[in-house]
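Section 3.1: Structural characterization of target chains.
Under the original work plan, the team committed to producing a structural model for every single-chain target entering the pipeline before any wet-lab resources were allocated. The record below documents one such target. The sequence was received from the expression subgroup and is listed exactly as submitted; it comprises 93 residues.
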Amino acid sequence: MTTVTVTDAKARLTELLAEVQTTRDRVHITRNGLPAGVLLSEDEFESLMETLNVLSDPVAMAGLAEAKAAAAAGDLHAAEDVLAEMRARVADE
């Protein structure tokens, strides 16, 4: 994790943007020694937004809980079987 001051962030913005884009890490920015913001890549931001959307969707969370319970109970399916079933469903449409 990189931490820089606002002044340093202004002076090195292009460099810091390249850093977050290549490392997917975040750059924390401080002002007067206190946290003021975070610089992150567009991909990382979109990933966080998608995660928040799933976590705030009761239907998605219920499905996730159901899947976790099924996995814990050993109710698992081979990837090849799932793929074959999906292909069959698409072919029927």
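The chain has a mean pLDDT of 94.
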